[in-house]
Prior knowledge:
The structure holds three protein chains of three kinds. Chain A is of the alpha+beta class. Chain A has helices at about 5-20, 25, 125-160, 165-180, 180-190, 200-215, 215-230, 235-240, 245-280, 295, 305-310, 315, 320-335, 345-350, and strands at about 50, 55-60, 65, 75, 85-95, 100-110. Chain A has two domains: about 45-115, no CATH class; about 130-335, MetI-like (MetI-like fold, Orthogonal Bundle), CATH 1.10.3720. In chain A, the strands form two sheets. In chain A, strands 1-2-5-6 form a four-stranded antiparallel beta sheet. A two-stranded antiparallel ribbon of chain A has the order 3-4. The longest helix of chain A has about 35 residues, at about 125-160. Chain A is elongated and about 85 Å long. The two termini of chain A are about 30 Å apart. Chain B is mostly helical. Chain B has 15 helices and no strands. In chain B, α7 (about 145-160) packs antiparallel against α8 (about 175-215). Chain C contains ten helices and ten strands. In chain C, α7 links the parallel β7 and β8. In chain C, α4 (about 110-120) packs parallel to α6. Chain C is globular and about 50 Å long. Chain C starts with a strand and ends in a 15-residue tail after the last helix. Classes of the chains: A alpha+beta, B mainly alpha, C alpha/beta. The interface between A and B is large, with 41 and 48 residues.
Amino acid sequence: MKQPRRLAKWxxxxxxxxxxxxxxxxxxxxxxxxxxxxxxxxPPMHAHLIDAQGHIHARPFFYPLRPREGSFxxxxxxxxxxxxxxxxxSGAAYRLLGVLPSRLHLFGAxxxxxxLLGSDAFGRDQLSRILYGGQVSLLAGLLGAGVxxxxxxxxxxxxxxxxxxxxxxxxxxxxxxxxxxxxxLLFALRAFLPLTVSPFDSFLLxxxxxxMVGWARPARLVRGVVLSVKERDFVRAARGFGxxxxxxxxxxxxxxxxxxxxxxxxxxxxxxxLAEMTLSFLGLGVPEPLSSWGNLLASLQQYNVLxxxxxxxxxxxxxxxxxxxxxxxxxxxxxxxVAYKIGEKDLWNPS
Amino acid sequence: MRYLLRRxxxxxxxxxxxxxxxxxxxxxxxxxxxxxxxxxxxxxxDTVAALRAQYQLDRPLPIRYLHWLxxxxxxxxxxxxxxNTPVAPLLWVRARNTLLLTGTATxxxxxxxxxxxxxxxxxxxxxxxxxxxxxxxxxxxxPDLVLALGLxxxxxxxxxxxxxxxxxxxxxxxxxxxxxxxxxxxxxxPVVALVLGTLPMLVRxxxxxxxxxxxxxxxxxxxxxxxxxxxxxxxxxxRAAANPLISLFGFSVGTLLSGSxxxxxxxxxxxxxxxxxxxxxxxxxxxxxxxxxxxxxFLVAGNLFADVLLYWADPRIRIAASAK
Amino acid sequence: xxxxxxxxxxxxxxxxxxxxxxxDNFAALDGVSFSIAPQTTLALVGExxxxxxxxxxxxxxxxxxxxxxxxxxxxxxxxxxQNRQRLLRPQIQLVFQDPASSLNPRWTALDIVTEPFLxxxxxxxxxxxxxxxxxxxxxxxxxxxxxRRAGELSGGQKQRLAIARALALEPKLxxxxxxxxxxxxxxxxxxxxxxxELQSSxxxxxxxxxxxxxxxxxxxxxxxxxxxGHIVESGPARNILSSPTHDATxxxxxxxxxxxxxxxxxVNF
Lengths: 351, 324, 269
């Protein structure tokens, strides 16, 4: 497939995926914090078209689950009532993109709750939690990447443009940061900061910590671009008209770094989402009741959950399409900026 | 020789810098190990103060750092508050476990990646290469976390593998052969997780390096001499493509201690990773610093090792280095 | 009459590392002296490595010489501070050899020509565009190319654009650093003719730097030959070309691809 089209294709795919998560309120049938203590650890429900009596229904439906005799976590279908699946139902209130109040959901059911992906210990719908959790995880990744790229670009430009001792100094520090194993740095950074803070503050902390870990590589790459552009004749010519350093940086050098920065963005964003997931999984990230893909997986650390409730693993798969999209986007971008060589090793190896 | 000396000096600088950074960092942050104790009404403030004095936490930072440097020079790494034992032996045991895991995984991964990558490069564009590329692409898309958890669930639901720990209970009573079998069965899952995590990238790199070399004229000349394809691939092409691979190998060696943290935590393998995590959460200062330093040592040693290897293997580097 | 440009004993040294301990100074310019009268053209000829480009950068105030002086209209440029130098810069403009790198390929032709106005903060936005288009006319570039990106233009068109940009701030001196060397022969002739025409209509002074004597008879009033960082021979073009005295001059002349009977004859390119 031709280069620009491939780039566009993956960009659109990613946009759609993000859109679904951004509009989690619409796509999720229920409020993620809504509990149903009567139905903890419900397995995913099956959709049926033919009921127990052999009748075919026009509309797919579900059977509510009730605990089996003599067990508290084994469920069986209660075939006496059928709960039909309805689209564009009115349900729990939410704010689309945090702004628009709405009650419209893509699908829902009357007369019972449908758990398409099962429920957790408090009876909360996993599908809704995964969708809303994606908002937190993706946002953390995007913001974290933003912080890192901003920091890296500024430092890289300063080092590359001003050269001399400033360059040496900054690059030595960058080398130090590059040498540290990033996961350790991440944990250490996070854990040495106050552990019990409000969910929002915790989220901010995660973003800042993630952002401060990865600036070294983008800084080095940006510096490389700046070093090569600085010597180009059109920069000399502009200086010949009396252009100031700031002008040169802003109008000539910065645009040249865009390619490198974009490629780094495509590489870093999924890594940072993963970093948030790892932190939250280990209890160092976003705390309950806020859901993120990471803390949704935290329950898997309990042995009984691991053995009996396999659907609690599903949030882990949510990140895979995003990884795929970003990976493809990054390789498409890399092929465009071949002039500035970025080693393949940088693609996924976080350290 | 001078070149290697310079690289070693550089490495030492790096280590010092990191140790200072870690020390600085952990001291700047609020909270230390004894804060929890202070909150505990059963322990008198005098005891806490005495403990702090014992661990010298009440001295200013530069003095603590110098003390610690001095201790390191004598082979000690400080004292663990949580475990109440010196740090060094604690670290060695855990590091040994980690190395067992990662060493095996790294060797396996390279043993598989080299032939796969070379073969893939030789079959460039054809069916086997395409299948392999697709497979590595798929694996790449699955992050370590997802992979390890998935494998764990597999183990749990099939019961084929133990789901945690180094060895089973009652290990000591087993015969040597059974001991080995027990260890291997415990190691299988984490090793598989690690190998699957690193294999795709390795294969890609090998493939890329060899592909670059395959078009070279000297290979065509060699083939016209009647040298067999297999010899061409492994003896000639692989050697020419060796440089980036040697650096990569050095990198693999470097991450022997630090690359498996997540897998160890998830699979409950008693290695360096879980220890560090615990220590970080408990603010067990010297364990954290000791552990970070140990990992850094490996990272730096790995790079140095790669440099040495490159120096030995590639005459061009020897010449360039001695010309300086 | 006072020369427009007078260069006195100019020297430029670059430190170059010989080994870990010793730093050797490489002298790109070693005591260069010459002057250019207003509205004339001096051709500075020398082989690669003779220091020509360094000289161009020093005169344009883009590099600082390590020794010697440069006088522009009688003012000692080398003694001025950064800010005053910046004020003087518009009067001395450079046209580089490779238009592919001297013009930002992503910018449109119009942007490139208006850049000097922007940097010097002259004129209003609409005025700038008008003047830019006028400049394009001057160098015989069709106006419809104004919206094209520089990267899409041909070599000759790019160099015309570079000249248009150099004219924007109404300089007195234009330094052409191998400005024709990267062009095809036929295009060289066109640009050379354009330069001659502009000189007479705008009263420009040229410092024409080249490694090739071929253009000298067409453009130059005077010629100076550079070799290893200093001037070995100089004088009116006619004299140098017909009776060279220095070895360097002779070898440069011998290397010229086309032979000619006498200077100042219009040569078929």
